[in-house]
Amino acid sequence: MSESVSFGYEDVSPEEKTRRVGDVFSNVAAKYDIMNDAMSGGMHRLWKDRFVRRVKPQPGEQILDMAGGTGDIAFRMEECGANVTVSDINQEMLDVGIERAMDRGLDSLVWSRQNAEELSFSSRIFDAYTIAFGIRNVTHIDKALAEAHRVLKFGGRFFCLEFSTTEWPGFKEAYDFYSHKLVPQIGKTIAGDADSYRYLIESIRRFPTMPDFEQMIRDAGFVRTKVEPIMGGLVAIHSGWKI
């Protein structure tokens, strides 16, 4: 039987998922940041601030921000003096980030179109690897984690911010209703695209649980792994070290 992977609630071929995820982010790129505010009530900004505090970027460090598209994480790390390479498989997302950087007068960031599963960078060149709300859209997560491990220096750190499943009683049910019923309608109203946001919600439901994803990070070779749930696990910060 040929391999299949999840695209939301569908099982499709790896090639089909890669193509369809690319279409999703091409469709939503222009409204991506506005939709993040609308869907999370602005909470995504606080999650990203917390994430970068955990990364602790230092002046002069070389950091790869994968799936960094519109620059939200990179801008925060650049303020700390880190040398950040922003990578994304989707050029439209990168174009939005480049435009935002120009508006801010930032010319220190490096922008590079990359597939997380097959990075073109040499081994052991980055002090940190970050990926925020992007790992669940990768076709083969294990390959992306292996590449993250490869490009990190010994002593380098991996940090991932991703949606998960909240364990708070009551809130879980309310969030399920909100995400499945209302988010696609918000997407239709603001971005003119309900289907892309329906996929993004479904992709969260198909993503591994926090313990299972932590095990995947360990299987990629990382040690001292840690999971920090936010809002009962609605969002989680995963981390590990390469030694």
Automatic annotation (TrEMBL):
Pathway as given in its UniProt record: Quinol/quinone metabolism; menaquinone biosynthesis; menaquinol from 1,4-dihydroxy-2-naphthoate: step 2/2; Cofactor biosynthesis; ubiquinone biosynthesis
EC number annotated for this UniProt entry: 2.1.1.163, 2.1.1.201
Record field: catalytic activity: a 2-methoxy-6-(all-trans-polyprenyl)benzene-1,4-diol + S-adenosyl-L-methionine = a 5-methoxy-2-methyl-3-(all-trans-polyprenyl)benzene-1,4-diol + S-adenosyl-L-homocysteine + H(+); a 2-demethylmenaquinol + S-adenosyl-L-methionine = a menaquinol + S-adenosyl-L-homocysteine + H(+)
InterPro entries per UniProt: SAM-dependent_MTases_sf, UbiE/COQ5_MeTrFase, UbiE/COQ5_MeTrFase_CS
Record carries keyword Hydrolase: no
Keywords: Menaquinone biosynthesis, Methyltransferase, S-adenosyl-L-methionine, Transferase, Ubiquinone, Ubiquinone biosynthesis
A GO molecular-function descriptor: demethylmenaquinone methyltransferase activity
PROSITE patterns xrefs: SAM_MT_UBIE, UBIE_1
Binding site for S-adenosyl-L-methionine: T70, D88, N115, A116
One Gene Ontology biological process: aerobic respiration
Pfam families: Ubie_methyltran
Entry keyword annotation includes Ribonucleoprotein: no
NCBIfam families associated with the record: MenG_MenH_UbiE
Family note: Belongs to the class I-like SAM-binding methyltransferase superfamily. MenG/UbiE family.
Role noted for this protein: Methyltransferase required for the conversion of demethylmenaquinol (DMKH2) to menaquinol (MKH2) and the conversion of 2-polyprenyl-6-methoxy-1,4-benzoquinol (DDMQH2) to 2-polyprenyl-3-methyl-6-methoxy-1,4-benzoquinol (DMQH2).
UniProt-recorded name of the protein: Ubiquinone/menaquinone biosynthesis C-methyltransferase UbiE
Lineage, highest ranks first: Bacteria, Pseudomonadati, Pseudomonadota, Alphaproteobacteria, Sphingomonadales
